Amino acid sequence: MSSPSKTTPGASAEEFEVKNSRGKVLTASLVGTSIEFYDFYIYATAASLVFPALFFPNDNETTALLASFAVFGVAFIARPIGSILFGHFGDRIGRKGTLVATLLTMGIATFAIGLLPTALTPGWEILAPTLLVIMRFCQGLGLGGEWSGAALLATENAPAGKRAIYGTFPQLGAPIGFILGNLLFVLLSHFMSDETFFAWGWRVPFLLSAILVIVGLWVRISLMETPAFEKVVQAGEVSKVPLFAAFKTSWRQIILGTFIMLATYVLFYMMTAFTLSFGTKATREQAAAKAAEAGEPFDPSTWVPGLGYQRETFLIMLIVSVVFFGIFTLVSGPLAEKYGRRKMLLWTTGAIFVFGFAMTPLIGLHEFFGPQAMLIIGMTLMGLTFGPMSAVLPELFPANVRYTGSAIAYNLSSVFGAGFAPTVFIALWAFGDGSPFWVGVYLAGAAVLTFGALLLSKETRDIAYVTNTK
């Protein structure tokens, strides 16, 4: 059992007894978010690769892809609801029990998707996509409460001067979950024919999520409550209705937090969901050759232009780039402690703005190295902007509404920055006749909004973190 920490600037707590070991805290926050993001990303991958044909078979290629991404966006509508629901319990009964509930909610929904009949099954033409929407909504509910709880688990147990460093561990769950989910899709694509993969192989990642959920539950159930919440209970300052209290005392922080996170969301879903579609769609030459092989005329109006990579190849390219995401997520923690969260994020957001205009020229530099360089640079920026967020957003709020406030800001940002972003990306992609230029402009616009929110915010590195409940 650790001794009480000293009261110093930037301390995560003032004279409290740490009951959770560092290894247990970091493992629980990392394992949980890795599982949650794995669940979330396998849906994003399936939405690009197989769900258009399986759940929307009567639409043309473009319409089916838009419908699939529209269902993808349903989860982002559910996430703010999940943030309110689980934020309420996280600030009322504690972080530990709430984190177990979020994991179960998303895990059961993900497993159920793997059991759904498709719209190709007679009699399920309408019910199958309807059930997909419901399960996707439940996924969003779970993730809506997961992130904030995992961030608080890490940062409210962190020693002095290390909140941002501890906070990178739940953030590291995003690249780890992405790599696990997409590596599994690569292996399935490699060892299965396209026919087998479309018939039942796509279900495997969803069904295997049950194993990961069991591991996550085992780790989280063994945790003790965080010192910050214990202080709130001891002081008798538990909010009766955290939602009302958060908006009454911290409405400005909720708005700022929403826009501070905006560019991060737009960048990430551009680099994953959109680029996967863009990278694997046929070039004009490939589409024309396929039509000719089938003895049909080539109709450009039904063709969605892309880079023409094989699914397996482009997934590997994405996985390589996500390694950089993970590395720079870890790098971001020490940088945020040394230079401050605000200054570091201002520089990173400025770089995201530049990247928005540079991505199209980067892609055109070389048939292979251009797109790969674009993916690596984008994911590097993603690590630098995403890593500090689990310290930045919770630090905006007092301890008695911290779960609710940070969860609402994080998930409202997901609605604006990610919920409809893939659909907007597809529309801008089509508007640009196959060029991602306008997609990059959209990203640059989001960076401007985030930059403005950062300018209006204050540095939070040195705030007291446990007893600031007023």
TrEMBL record:
Domain of life: Bacteria
Record carries keyword Membrane: yes
Principal location class: membrane
Subcellular location per the Swiss-Prot or TrEMBL entry: Cell membrane
Annotated coiled-coil segments of the chain: none
Gene Ontology CC annotations of this record: plasma membrane
InterPro entries, sorted: MFS, MFS_dom, MFS_trans_sf, Sugar_transporter_CS
Keywords of the record: Cell membrane, Membrane, Symport, Transmembrane, Transmembrane helix, Transport
Transmembrane segments: 64-87, 99-120, 126-153, 165-188, 200-221, 254-276, 313-332, 344-363, 375-397, 409-431, 437-456
Every Major facilitator superfamily (MFS) profile domain range: 25-461
Gene Ontology molecular function: symporter activity
Cross-referenced PROSITE patterns: MFS (PS50850), SUGAR_TRANSPORT_1 (PS00216)
Membrane topology reported for the UniProt record: Multi-pass membrane protein
Pfam families from the UniProt entry: MFS_1
Family: Belongs to the major facilitator superfamily. Metabolite:H+ Symporter (MHS) family (TC 2.A.1.6) family.
Stated role: May be a proton symporter involved in the uptake of osmolytes such as proline and glycine betaine.
Stated name of the protein: Putative proline/betaine transporter
Organism: Pseudoclavibacter terrae
